[in-house]
Structures are given as C-alpha cells and as structure tokens.
Amino acid sequence: MFTTHGTDQPGPGVDTGPARTDNRIREADGPQDVSQEPGPAADGENRARHGGADRLLDVARSQLGYREGARNDTKYGRWYGMNHAAWCDMFVSWCADRSGLIDVVGRFAYTVHHAGWFRQHGRWGRTPRPGAIVFFDWRGGNDISGIDHVGIVEAVRGDGAIVTIEGNTGDMVARRVRRANIVGYGYPDYGDSGDADGAPPWPGRELRRTDPMMHGGDVRMWQTRMRQRGWPITADGWYGDQSARACRRFQREKGLDADGVVGPRTWRATWEAQIS
User: Fold this and answer.
1) Which of 47, 67, 159, 239 has most Cβ atoms within 10 angstroms of its Cβ?
2) Using 50, 70 and 90 to split pLDDT, how confident is the model at 8?
3) What is the DSSP secondary structure assignment for residue 28, as one 8-state letter?
C-alpha cells in the first residue's frame, strides 16, 4: 500500500498546487443518458460490487446534485483549506477521506500532481475499471502535464464508454458519460477490500488518543462501524476520550488487550467479531 498524509494539513504527498478544471460537457462524449439520483449505475454495466471501490463510490453518490456557491465556494474546498478554487480533485479527495481511503486514493487539488503520484507508484494505466480515478485533458492530449479534470469511474459500458461521478462539472457534482479526452487512470490499491464479508483494509496507522487529537476518514469509518454494532459513539472523525473508552470496553468484551488503541486486531474484530 502506498500512502500520503491522511490529514487536512499540507505535508509530503499533499498537493497545494494550482487547481485546473473545465466543467463543460463535450459533444464527443455523446448522450448523457444517466440518472442523477444517488443509486448505483444501471444494472448490466461493469460496476463495483463491494469493498473499497464501492465504499468510495457510495460516498461520491451521496453527493450527487451538490452545487457550488458564489466564487467556487464548496465544502470540499473548505475541508481542503483551499476554497474558492477549481474543486474537481478536492471533491475526489474529500470522498476518499470520508470513505477511509485517503492513503490509497490521495489528497490533491492539482490534477497533474495527482496523476503523477499514481504513475510514480506504478498504479497508472489506460484501462478503465470501476473505482479507478480517471483524468482528462480537454485539449485532447495524452500527456499527464496537460491534465485538467478528474473524476471517479463508477461503471464501464459494453461499448467502452465510462460512467463517472465528477465534481465541478456544470458547477455541481454529477454523473457523466465519457468517451473522449481521457489521458489515463489511477488505480487505488484497495488491497483485500474486495471481501465484502470481512473487515476493510487496515488503514496503516493505530487509532489512539493523542494531543492534538487524531482525525481522519479512518477514524470515522471505525466509529461508524462501532455505531452499527450498537456502541454509543459519535462518528465525527475525531478520536477523543469517548472513542478511547468505547474501544477499551469493546476490547475487554472480545478478550483483546484493553489499551484503547485501534490496532490491526481491534480493527478486524470491529467488523468480524460476533455482535453481543
């Protein structure tokens, strides 16, 4: 697994370069015969079924119809710390954070850097697949340096067209059908997340009470699962005293070391241990 910093602050692997986008729908893409409702793409298409790719897409689907405010004001830009700018890649990063996949999808605002990051890690190619990050050059080029838009592949059609979910397209989050101006695809390393019945991949860091408080999509994912198991915990993405107490109680219940730290064993048990 390759990683970036999964935080809201700039750091190694976190892009603060100039955002670039073009939110026009191109004639070469053909009819936009897709629903803008939050459900999955149409049956019969090659689409993600479960695991990490579908977690990312579930978050993206929940944002369909979101519209920017004045001067490119969006919650994605505010989250990233670079509001009032082109926000297509900040939308992708926000979805990755909310699905606990920031380490494998990346946290970027500048599409050129994002695509280059995938290529640097050997996760770049020309074949569409559900859950891939797709990069466009509206001028029709094939070089990463010309990329100026990005989206998430939701489905691949039999005729080779892709169905995407994109931010900053028509000043909103929307599904699109794309056939042209595609430079390539970044393939997040979803690991063993294809196992729908098991735990999602270990996020790569221990969740623990720290000062300043630990925060991120992985924390929110664990908290959400704990709530699903019936624990009275707030899924706000901040690992504070409430989370640590719930963790210790859960660990004692399952015969784990009750240290209040969500390590690999506790993470897996949160999904796979019997609910009691």
Assistant:
1) 239
2) very low
3) G
Structure tokens at 147: 């990329």
Cα–Cα distance between 22 and 168 in angstroms, integer?
Answer: 8
- Rounded CA-CA distance 156/85 in Å is 30
Contacts of 268-271 with CB under 8 Å at 24 or more apart are 268/198, 268/199, 268/202, 270/199, 270/222, 270/225, 270/226, 270/229, 271/198, 271/199, 271/200, 271/225
- Rounded distance, CA 250 to CA 207, Å? 14
pLDDT tens-digit series, residues 241-262:
999 999 999 999 999 999 999 9
Query: Rounded distance, CA 153 to CA 21, Å?
Result: 17
Q: Which of 4-18, 65-79, 121-135, 151-165 has the lowest mean pLDDT?
A: 4-18
Of 255, 241, 226, 217, the C-alpha closest to 105 is 217
Q: What is the largest CA-CA distance in the chain?
A: 60
Helix, strand, coil share (%) of the chain residues, nearest 5: 30, 15, 55
Domains of the chain in start order, with CATH, are 27-186 (3.90.1720.10), 214-272 (1.10.101.10)
On the question of pLDDT at 1 being above 80, the answer is no
Q: Which two tokens stand for residue 256?
A: 């784990």
Instruction: Name the phi and psi angles at 172, rounded to 5.
Output: -155, 180
Residue 202: what pLDDT?
76
- In this structure, the number of other CB atoms found within 10 A of the CB of residue 127 comes to 9
DSSP 274: P
